[in-house]
Amino acid sequence: MLRVVAFLVGLLAAAPALADSMTAEEARRFVVGKTFSYNCFEGTRGQGRVLADGSVVGSIQFQGSGKVRYAALPSNTIQVKGESVCASVRGMPINPCFKLTKVDDQSFRGAISGLGFAYCEFTRRTVRASASTNDSGEPLNLRRSLSATANN
């Protein structure tokens, strides 16, 4: 009886973790076209966006120090292979695949399959357009500006 209870407790404890794993299609819907900042286990950080064609644009700062570098990787850099999401980068000896786990509505963890310690945490960034203002702090009115220019 004690073994059955222990098994059920273990199963219930593992169920939320299993439910958070994302399929390739769930990951595509969650990630494509959105901007994420990321922090990796060894200090690398940056931000980026995966586009629908599998291309990637963004910035990276290796090991959290030094120069921030901007990168644009070509289409099919991020690929779906069965239920796995993998990366294909020219010059790399392997094409790593990732285990993606949804943390909450704004973030996920990506770990290299088989190397759970090698992961990055990704958090969705909300990019908001800001309204421009004039010197008095009032929002600019394009129509008023055009009519004022036309009268001069």
Key features of this structure:
disordered C terminus, 9 strands, alpha+beta, 152 residues, 3 helices
Walkthrough of the structure:
It contains 3 helices and 9 strands; from the N terminus they run H-H-E-E-E-E-E-E-E-E-E-H. A hairpin with a 2-residue loop joins strand 8 and strand 9 (115-124). It is 24% helix and 36% strand. The chain has a 9-stranded antiparallel beta sheet, with helices on one face. It has helices at 2-20, 24-31, 142-151, and strands at residues 35-40, 45-50, 56-61, 69-73, 78-81, 84-87, 97-104, 107-112, 115-124. It starts with a helix and ends with a helix. It is an alpha+beta fold and 152 residues long.
**Whole-number mean pLDDT:** 76
Number of helices: 3
**What can be said about the biggest beta sheet?**
9 strands, antiparallel
Range of helix content: 10-25%
The count of β-strands is: 9
Q: Nearest-angstrom radius of gyration?
A: 22 Å
Query: What is the H-and-E element order?
Result: HHEEEEEEEEEH
Note the gap between the termini.
91 Å
Strand content: 35-45%
Low-confidence runs: 1-19, 139-152
**Order of strands across the widest beta sheet?**
4-3-2-1-9-8-7-6-5
Tell me, briefly, the overall form.
Answer: globular
**Class by SSE composition:** alpha+beta
